[in-house]
């Protein structure tokens, strides 16, 4: 297919596994990102502000509904949606987090846990990005142990529910139109999902400041104080944390794709710099130790890309399990951490300057390394699967 330049970081040509139609979509995403997002990514990251003007561009791409039946002209494969996440993360991991929270966590909750009527009520507008979603699970006192320690409560009161509690680190929440809130039903002690719409009394979202990673993402502290949610906004098929986990199982792989994008962006920035930076009379790309760093980075990118491509195949065949996504998230995010550090090393002192992009990738990698399951939690998921013994503390 003419006009589709291979990634500098895709040495083995994994993108060739996409169909021509899929590759055309990825190219359209790439061109939009290079034209509209790349020029402003560092500016908004430094200011910790969100560039709302790019939402129209994302909307025009018409890719938000690719993962869901009836929400796009053709349902996309996991390979296609993975490469879209890679493309966005390759330019701006913050923007990929915004996109992933909306299309994966929020839309995925409605798709998997909502009734047919609820899917029809919310998903089309979300697919058109006319309504932006958020996903509120993590709490101030509950991160990795949130499954057993969820403190936010829901109490049935006639045809409504009263939600009380707090959520933390909720991406998109300061401006989202729909926030999927997970709360424990006081009556049966089961975790259930509720769609809280913008303007609902008793719902307050306050932007978290002072972040050193994913600064463009508008994370919020949420307070729910007798937040009144109608029964019609309770997700009908969310009746236990097992249902919440089903959503996370599908999105954790997307985080791994974003991590590949982050390290690929850092590698490509380092490669460009090494070809332009002259020391001792020649480009530093010609020195042995710099080439060692570049080869190590490319190896990390290539092996990680192979892993997420394999995961996408399992997902498209419907045979993926918790341990498949967990292993990808754990391994890829660890390799990403090494890769962005090596990229900074190639740039030397200039690597800490935002103008060279690598510093942004290096900082953002720290958040990707931790969210949607820390390395340790994902390792325990894999360990339980391969040994048949759980090492989780109860």
UniProtKB/TrEMBL annotation:
Its EC number is 1.3.8.6. Residues 134-227 form the Acyl-CoA oxidase/dehydrogenase middle domain. The keyword Hydrolase does not apply. One of its GO terms (molecular function) is glutaryl-CoA dehydrogenase activity. Its cofactor is FAD. PROSITE patterns: ACYL_COA_DH_1, ACYL_COA_DH_2. One of its GO terms (biological process) is fatty acid beta-oxidation. This is Glutaryl-CoA dehydrogenase. The lineage of its organism: Bacteria, Bacillati, Actinomycetota, Actinomycetes, Pseudonocardiales.
């Amino acid at each position: 297919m003419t006009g589709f330049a291979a990634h500098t970081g895709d040495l083995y040509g994994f993108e060739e596994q996409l169909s021509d139609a899929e590759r055309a979509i990825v190219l359209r995403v790439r061109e939009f990102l290079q034209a509209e997002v790349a020029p402003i990514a560092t500016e908004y990251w430094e200011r910790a502000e969100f560039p709302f003007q790019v939402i129209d561009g994302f909307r025009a791409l018409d890719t938000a509904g690719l993962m869901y039946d009836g929400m796009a002209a053709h349902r996309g494969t996991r390979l296609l949606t993975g490469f879209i996440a890679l493309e966005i993360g390759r330019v701006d991991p913050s923007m990929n987090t915004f996109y992933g929270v909306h299309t994966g966590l929020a839309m995925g909750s409605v798709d998997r846990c909502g009734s047919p009527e609820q899917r029809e009520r919310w998903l089309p507008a979300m697919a058109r990005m006319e309504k932006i979603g958020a996903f509120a699970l993590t709490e101030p006192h509950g991160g990795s142990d949130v499954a057993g320690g969820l403190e936010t409560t829901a109490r049935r009161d006639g045809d409504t529910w009263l939600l009380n509690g707090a959520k933390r680190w909720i991406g998109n929440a300061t401006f989202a139109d729909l926030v999927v809130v997970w709360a424990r039903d006081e009556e049966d002690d089961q975790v259930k999902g509720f769609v809280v719409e913008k303007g609902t009394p008793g719902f307050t979202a306050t932007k978290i400041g002072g972040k050193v990673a994913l600064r463009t993402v508008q994370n919020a502290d949420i307070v729910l104080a007798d937040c009144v949610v109608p029964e019609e906004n309770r997700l009908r098929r969310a009746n236990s944390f097992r249902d919440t986990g089903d959503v996370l199982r599908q999105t954790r792989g997307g985080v791994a794709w974003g991590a590949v994008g982050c390290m690929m962006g850092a590698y490509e920035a380092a490669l460009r710099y090494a070809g332009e930076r002259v020391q001792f009379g020649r480009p530093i790309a010609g020195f042995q130790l710099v080439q060692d760093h570049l080869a190590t980075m490319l190896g990390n990118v290539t092996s990680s890309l192979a892993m997420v491509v394999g995961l996408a195949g399992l997902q498209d065949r419907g045979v993926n399990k918790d341990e498949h996504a967990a292993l990808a998230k754990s391994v890829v995010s660890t390799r990403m951490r090494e890769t962005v550090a090596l990229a900074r090393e190639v740039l030397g002192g200039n690597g800490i300057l935002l103008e060279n992009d690598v510093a942004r990738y290096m900082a953002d990698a720290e958040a990707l390394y931790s969210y949607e399951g820390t390395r340790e939690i994902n390792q325990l998921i894999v360990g339980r699967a391969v040994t048949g013994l759980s090492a989780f503390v109860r």
